[in-house]
Amino acid sequence: MGVAVVKPQGLGRRVSPGLLLVFGLLSVALVATVVWAVWKEARAEWRVWQGRYAALEAGAPVTAEDGARGLQQIWLPDLDRVDRCTSCHLGIAEPERAGAPQPFRAHPGRWLEIHRPDRYGCTACHGGQGEATSYRGAAHGPIPYWPEPMASRELMEARCGTCHRERRPKGTDWLARGRALMADRNCTACHEVPGHDAAEVRAPRLDGLALKVPPSWLRGWLKKPNGYLPKSRMGDFRLSERDVEALAAFLLQPHGKLALDRTDWSKADTEKGGELFRASRCVTCHEVNGRGGTLAPALTHVGAKASRDWLYSWIRDPHRFQPKTLMPRFQFRDDEARDLAAYLSSEYGEAPEGFQASDAAPSPALAEEGRGIYEKRGCYSCHELEGFPALARIGPKLAAIGDRVLEPAPLVARGIRTTLPNWLFTKVSGPERVLDAARMPTFGFAEDEAAAVTVALLSLRAREAPPARTTRDPVRVPPAYGSPTSGGKPYEPQGEFGALVRRYRCLSCHTIGGSGHVTATGAPLSTVRLDRIGSQLTREHLERYIAKPYGVRVALPERMPHLNVAPEEARTLAAYLSTVMVDDAIEGTVPVDAVTVARGKQLFDRHGCVGCHIVGDKGGYVGPDLNGCGARLKPGWAVAWLLEPERWKPGTLEPDHGLTRPEAEALTAYVLSLPARKAKGAGR
Amino acid sequence: MSRSWLGLVALLAVAGCRAPSPPGNDALQAAFKDDALSARAARGHRVFLQRCATCHGPRGRGDGQNAYNLQPPPPDFQESLSRLSPADRRRVVEGGTAALGRSPLCPPWGRSLGPDDVDALLAWLEEAARPAAGLPGPDAPAACGAR
C-alpha cells in the first residue's frame, strides 16, 4: 500500500505557493461557514417571531428580535409526531390573543379545550411538517407533491375523521354527510371500507323481475336510472345499447319461484284507492310529483314500471318479495290493496320522458352475454338473485385512500388538477372523467354531495390513529334486553313484540338502542326514539296512537303512516313499550294544586311558549298542540324534557330556558292540566 | 442514446425542482363554496335554518311558516338588523328578545347552542346585515326547521 508518509521537515522548508493558497481559501471558507451558520440561526424565522411576540406582550413597538423562549416542541410518541409549530404560533392557546395578528392569534373556537395542544399537538389535526421551523418548510398551503401538506379549511373535517370513526362525528358537517352518503349508495358493496363493516347493502332482490317490469322500463332504467328516479340510489353504469339489451335479456329470464296474487280488476275503485293513498300517509316515505319523503322510491311513474298485479301482490305482502325491505306490511283488506294498486297504476302510469323504448322482449340468445355483464359490472354485489353466486367484492379496498399517491400524467392530459382531493372529487362525480374504462357507476352526486364524499374518503388514512386516540360508535343494547355483551350485534326485538316490530317495520323510522335505519342525511327518519317511550307517554295514548296515528306536531311533514294496526296488536305493542321501554330516571309526579298551576301559567306566558304551542285556539304550529296533553304525556318526562331538551333530542326546536326544577314542575302542572279541545278533538 | 438520456434527466430535474403550477381546474374548491359565504357564515346559516327559519324564514325576511301566528311578528332582517349593535345581537341570540325587554316570543338559544354555533350564527347575521348585500345563502330545503 502506498501510504504517503510525511517526514518531519524543518520550518524553513518552503511550501509550494499553490498549496498555501488552497489552504488559506479553505480556512476563510470554514470561518465564513461558521459565521454564516451562527448568524442564520440567530436570524431564524422563529426567533424573529418570538421577538415580535415578546414586544407584543410588553406592549412595545414591534422591533425587538430576541428569541427569548427558545424553540418550542411538542413530542407525541404514540402519534409519531414532533410539532414545533408553537415556536411561532405563540398565542395559540391564549384566549386574550383572539384579535392578535398572525402567527400569534389564538386558535378560533373552543377546539383546544378538548384537544389540548400538549396532548394532540398541531399536525395531527392540521397536517403539514411539524418539525419545520419556517413558514414554507412547514408546508403551509398546498404544495404539489408534498406528502402531507396542511389541510385546507374545507378539508379539515377529513382530518377529524381519522380519529373520530363514528358515522356522525359530533360537530362535523361534511364528514357526517359524506359517510351517510357512502352508506346510502352502498359503496361497501363493492369496496371494503374501514368503519362501514356494519353498513347493510340495500338493493332489491331481482328474482321474478319479469313478473314486475316490462322490457321497455327495464331498458330505460338500465340506460339511465335517474331518468326514472331523479334521486336514484343506483348509479349510471354507462352501458352500451347492446349491453342494455343483453342485461335485460338475462334479468327477464325466470329466476326464483315467485308468483303473483290474482284479483278481479273489474271491481277496482281508483277513487277509493286515491283516498286510501292519502289517508295512509304513503308520502311520508314515497315522493309523488316532486313532493314527499325520500326513504323509499318515488312513485311518480310507478305505473310504467310495475304491473298492476305485482303492485297488488306487493302491497298485500312486500316481505314475500323483498325480505329486507323497509316497507311495512300494512293491514289492508284485499279490496283495499286492489283499489290502491289500481289507483297507483292509473294515476301514476305515465312513463317518464325518454322511456319510449320498444316493449319487445329482448332476444333470449343474449342472456348468456347478459350474465357476463351482470358479473363483470358487479351487479351481484348489491342485488341478490336466485341461482347467482355471491362473488368477491369488485372494487379496490378503500383503506388508505386518503394517502394514495397519484400518477399525474393521465390527469394532466385530461386537464384535472393533480391533487388527491381533486382527483377523488372528480372520480366520485364521474368515474369516466378520470378513466374511460372505469367500471364504477356514475352516481350523479351534486357538487356538494361529491365534496362531502371526498371529505369522508380523505379521512381513511394509511396509518390509523392508535386505538386510545380514536372514538367509535358505541354498540348500544338497551339494558332491558339483555347484557351489554351480546356480541356487538344490532338489537333484534324478540317474541310477539318482535314479530309485530318486523311486520310493521318500526325500525325503518324509529330506533331502539341505536338500532334502526339511518337515512342519507345520517339520521333516522323519525326523531322519536323508542328506548324510553314507555316513560314518556301514557299507555292509553300509545295504544290509541299506534292504532290510529295523527299529527302531534302539525308542521312536521313526516307523519307516521296509517298501518291499520289491529286493536289487539296495538294493545300488545303499547303494553310492551310501557313496561319494557322505560327509564326510571324520568319517572315521577308533580304537585298539582291551584297555586302551582297558577305559577305554571305565569311561566308559560313569561317564556312566550304560545309562540310555538297551541293552547285553546291560539298559538304557533312548531311544537305539539298542548290542549289535553295530560292524556298523552307523563309528568316526569315533561319535567325532564323542559329541564334539558338538548340532552334528549339534540338539535330540537324546544329551547333550553334554564328553568329550575320547581319551575319546570309548575310549568308541567299547568300544561298537563289543560283541557282537551271539545269541538275538533286533539287529533284527527 | 446518451443524448436522449441526458435530455430525460434534464427534463426530470426541471420537473422535480420547479413545482409546476398544476394545470386544470380544481373543481373541489368550487364545490365547497356556499354562494359567497365564508365557511363560518355558512355554518351559521345552517344553524339559522335549523333553529330560526321556522319563524324568521330561510333568509330572515320574517316569512317563516310559523310567522303568522306571532304577535308581534318576526321582523325583516334586511330592515331591522342594522338597528341592533353586535353586542345586542349576541344578547338576543343567547337570551332571547326578552333579554332586551321585548316580547318573549323569540326564545333564548344560549344554552342549546354551543359557543361555536352562536359565533357562527352571529357571523352569518353579520354578513346578512351588510347594507344592500341581501341575505346570503341558499334557501332551506322544504322540511328544514320543522322538527
Give your account of this protein's structure.
- The complex is a heterodimer of chains A (about 675) and B (about 150).
- Chain A is mainly alpha-helical and about 675 residues long.
- Helix content of chain A is about 35%, strand content about 0%.
- Chain A has 29 helices and 4 strands.
- Chain A has helices at about 15-40, 45-60, 110-115, 115-120, 125, 155-165, 175-185, 185-190, 210, 215-225, 225-230, 240-250, 270-280, 300-305, 310-315, 320, 335-345, 365-375, 410-415, 420-430, 445-460, 495-505, 535, 540-545, 565-580, 595-605, 635-645, 645-650, 660-670, and strands spanning about 75, 80-85, 285-290, 290.
- In chain A, strands 1-2 form a two-stranded antiparallel sheet. Chain A has a two-stranded antiparallel sheet with strand order 3-4.
- In chain A, strand 3 and strand 4 (about 290) form a beta hairpin.
- The longest helix of chain A is centred in the first third of the chain and has 26 residues, at about 15-40.
- Chain A is flat, with a radius of gyration of 34 Å.
- The termini of chain A are far apart.
- The model of chain A is unreliable at about 475-490 (pLDDT under 50).
- Chain B has about 150 residues and is mainly alpha-helical.
- In chain B, helix 3 packs across helix 7 (about 115-130).
- The longest helix of chain B is centred in the N-terminal third of the chain and has 16 residues, at about 1-15.
- The radius of gyration of chain B is 24 Å and the shape is globular.
- Residues about 10-25 and about 130-145 of chain B have low confidence and may be disordered.
- Chains A and B meet through helix 19, helix 20 and helix 21 of A and helix 2, helix 3 and helix 7 of B.
